[in-house]
């Protein structure tokens, strides 16, 4: 882990010492080097499941794909922000990069934590740079409202989590993930026990987000600058999923009835947010609601706690992270040219920017879960395991898949096909940087199709 | 021809067919006779002023080979080279090769140790070995798998009449 952490820490001096002319080049190079080094974490050579351990940090097949995704995303965020940040004074650019790097650092420590309290602290700490990125570098006045929703929704969910963790520490004597994975789940007799069960999960359900507590997500994703949207969609939502998967293994089947309302909410949320997508006028809002929809499927998969559903959840988290981030980058290419996110204002772009239309096409195909991409594999595995759990869920998940395909098609047709908007008179050509950014998003998805065992987790 | 120019080189021609051709936005004053003035505010076509009151100049004007990284052409090219080298050649190609040749560890025993007892590693080897054994046994004509895990003749059972 240190070979990842030390270079990430050294990104701070790099940011502040590099000459302004070469700042972005150096950051891109170092961030990509860290991303390459993170691939070595995929070498799981231990019988107990946990590798790369020291007393505080370790990796296992659940956290490693998410760690690699986090490390991969930093250079992509740097590439995506380079253009819109460049008019700003150099020290403000350095501050922006420092926030991105500190977010990266906290996320690495969160995914690598072996002690749940360290995970909790890092989970909360990631809120701070994200809040600053959204409220300082967002483009509309709504960013303040978005930051408030983002911060307080997550905090309201995580204070009960802290109490629950302290109770767990008192009962079990240890909060190390290596130990609690073997402990017998406590029977939930009293009302307080049931509230404890809910308190363990609510923070992560808000973060995922679950449908009823999802209101922060469209605001935060839309108002954030592109790097903020990317890291939110790709990694921060998966923090919630990861936390849930760690906690829920000790909240075992005795919680059957307690889980039902959340499973139903998650499944219903897939359909509701998918339908909302079909009515969106704001492009980024459409992509944000699509994230809620996909994460609803992940939440349902995690809550039923079968080996296959866990596997599907991890695969879908990784695949969705890359695809959703790609879509936000594409939306940003539109935004940088037109300074508007309205779907109607950027129609028929295929006639103007045909190469970018190719990327739009592939990204939307990934979003609607086209085989053989891992998006489909994750969704299919979750849908199958949910069908096994209860046959009625196929109605909801099947309709959800249909609606997902509809809004992905809608997004593609609205932005790329049809007549060019007459209002557009001068569109800057696509940059090499933007093409590279899209390639670096979509090539890993395609490569993961060929080696899915990297993402299967520990249950397959 | 002009419509092709309008589509392909928008930075050079901000107005459409029939209007003043070759109108550019290099000067600091907005172009006169702007027929393309936006009906919707918030759009920024040519002629839109940025925060300092200057007209937005496309970086393609000064540097035909702008890659999107930096306004200095030399830094722009170097940034592009560095990003492509580290991103594609190192991370994807070398990293991908590394990942491809990772040993056959597979997932290990996790939290379901008490319930599922999944095996650790060597999954790909196990499948190859199984296929090899099936092929070998079918060629020899013997049963692929015996119903008994242990050889029944080797199991010594106490006789029915014995008591402790």
From TrEMBL, chain A:
GO terms for cellular component: mitochondrial membrane. The chain crosses the membrane at residues 21-42, 62-81, 93-111, 117-137, 149-168, 195-217, 224-245, 257-278, 285-304, 310-330, 351-370, 390-413. Core subunit of the mitochondrial membrane respiratory chain NADH dehydrogenase (Complex I) which catalyzes electron transfer from NADH through the respiratory chain, using ubiquinone as an electron acceptor. Essential for the catalytic activity and assembly of complex I. InterPro entries: NADH4_N, NADH_Q_OxRdtase_chainM/4, NADH_UbQ_OxRdtase, ND/Mrp_TM. It catalyses: a ubiquinone + NADH + 5 H(+)(in) = a ubiquinol + NAD(+) + 4 H(+)(out). Its EC number is 7.1.1.2. It is a multi-pass membrane protein. Residues 113-404 form the NADH:quinone oxidoreductase/Mrp antiporter transmembrane domain. It is found in: Mitochondrion membrane. Residues 1-110 form the NADH:ubiquinone oxidoreductase chain 4 N-terminal domain. This is NADH-ubiquinone oxidoreductase chain 4. Belongs to the complex I subunit 4 family. GO terms for molecular function: NADH dehydrogenase (ubiquinone) activity; NADH dehydrogenase activity; ubiquinone binding. GO terms for biological process: ATP synthesis coupled electron transport; electron transport coupled proton transport.
From TrEMBL, chain B:
It holds the Pfam family ESSS. Its main location: mitochondrion. It comes from the Eukaryota. Keywords: Electron transport, Membrane, Mitochondrion, Mitochondrion inner membrane, Respiratory chain, Transit peptide, Transmembrane, Transmembrane helix, Transport. It is found in: Mitochondrion inner membrane. The chain crosses the membrane at residues 82-102. It is a single-pass membrane protein. Belongs to the complex I NDUFB11 subunit family. Complex I is composed of 45 different subunits. Interacts with BCAP31. Accessory subunit of the mitochondrial membrane respiratory chain NADH dehydrogenase (Complex I), that is believed not to be involved in catalysis. Complex I functions in the transfer of electrons from NADH to the respiratory chain. The immediate electron acceptor for the enzyme is believed to be ubiquinone. This is NADH dehydrogenase [ubiquinone] 1 beta subcomplex subunit 11, mitochondrial. The gene is Ndufb11_0.
């Amino acid at each position: 882990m240190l070979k990842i952490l030390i270079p990430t820490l050294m990104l701070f001096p790099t940011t502040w010492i590099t000459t302004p002319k070469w700042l972005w080049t150096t950051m891109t190079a170092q961030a990509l080097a860290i991303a390459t080094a993170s691939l070595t974490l995929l070498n799981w050579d231990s019988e107990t499941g946990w590798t790369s351990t020291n007393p505080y940090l370790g990796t296992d097949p659940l956290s490693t794909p998410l760690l690699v995704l986090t490390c991969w995303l930093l250079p992509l965020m740097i590439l995506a922000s380079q253009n819109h940040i460049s008019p700003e004074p150099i020290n403000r650019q350095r501050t922006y990069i420092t926030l991105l790097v500190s977010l990266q650092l906290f996320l690495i420590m969160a995914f690598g934590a072996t002690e749940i309290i360290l995970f909790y602290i890092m989970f909360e700490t990631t809120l701070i740079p994200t809040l600053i990125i959204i409220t300082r570098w967002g483009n509309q006045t709504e960013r303040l409202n978005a930051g408030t929703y983002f911060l307080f929704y997550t905090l309201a969910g995580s204070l009960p989590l802290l109490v629950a963790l302290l109770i767990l520490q008192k009962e079990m004597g240890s909060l190390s993930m290596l130990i609690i994975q073997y402990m017998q789940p406590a029977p939930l007799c009293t009302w307080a026990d049931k509230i404890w069960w809910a308190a363990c999960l609510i923070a992560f359900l808000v973060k995922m987000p679950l449908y009823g507590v999802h209101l922060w997500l469209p605001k935060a994703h839309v108002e954030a600058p592109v790097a903020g949207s990317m890291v939110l969609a790709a990694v921060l939502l998966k923090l919630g999923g990861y936390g849930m998967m760690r906690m829920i293994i000790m909240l075992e089947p005795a919680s059957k009835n307690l889980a039902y309302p959340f499973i139903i909410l998650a499944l219903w949320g897939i359909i509701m947010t998918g339908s909302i997508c079909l009515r969106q006028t704001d492009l980024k809002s459409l992509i944000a609601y699509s994230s809620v929809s996909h994460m609803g499927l992940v939440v349902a998969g995690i809550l039923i706690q079968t080996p296959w559903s866990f596997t599907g959840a991890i695969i879908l988290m990784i695949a969705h992270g890359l695809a959703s981030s790609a879509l936000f980058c594409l939306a940003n290419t539109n935004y940088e040219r037109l300074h508007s996110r309205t779907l109607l204002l950027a129609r028929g772009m295929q006639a103007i920017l045909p190469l970018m239309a190719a990327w739009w096409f592939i990204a939307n195909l990934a979003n609607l879960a086209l085989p053989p991409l891992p998006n489909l594999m994750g969704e299919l595995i979750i849908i199958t395991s949910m069908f096994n759990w209860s046959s009625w869920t196929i109605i909801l998940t099947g309709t959800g898949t249909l609606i997902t395909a509809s809004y992905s098609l809608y997004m593609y047709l609205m932005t790329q096909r049809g007549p060019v908007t007459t209002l557009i008179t001068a569109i800057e050509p696509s940059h090499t940087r933007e093409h590279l950014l899209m390639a670096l998003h979509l090539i890993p998805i395609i490569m993961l199709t060929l080696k899915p065992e990297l993402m299967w987790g520990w249950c397959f | 021809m002009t419509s092709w120019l309008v589509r392909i080189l928008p930075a050079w021609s901000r107005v459409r067919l029939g209007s003043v051709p070759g109108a550019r936005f290099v000067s600091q004053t907005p172009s006169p006779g702007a027929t393309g003035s936006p009906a919707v505010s918030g759009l920024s076509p040519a002629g839109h002023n940025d925060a300092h009151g200057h007209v937005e100049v496309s970086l393609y004007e000064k540097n035909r080979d702008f890659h999107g990284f930096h306004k200095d052409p030399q830094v722009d090219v170097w940034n592009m080279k560095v990003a492509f080298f580290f991103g594609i050649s190192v991370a994807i190609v070398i990293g991908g090769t590394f990942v491809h040749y990772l040993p056959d560890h597979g997932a290990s025993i996790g939290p379901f140790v008490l319930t599922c007892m999944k095996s650790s590693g060597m999954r790909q080897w196990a499948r190859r070995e199984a296929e090899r054994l099936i092929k070998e046994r079918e060629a020899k004509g013997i049963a692929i798998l015996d119903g008994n895990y242990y050889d029944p003749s080797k199991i010594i059972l106490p006789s029915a009449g014995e008591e402790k």
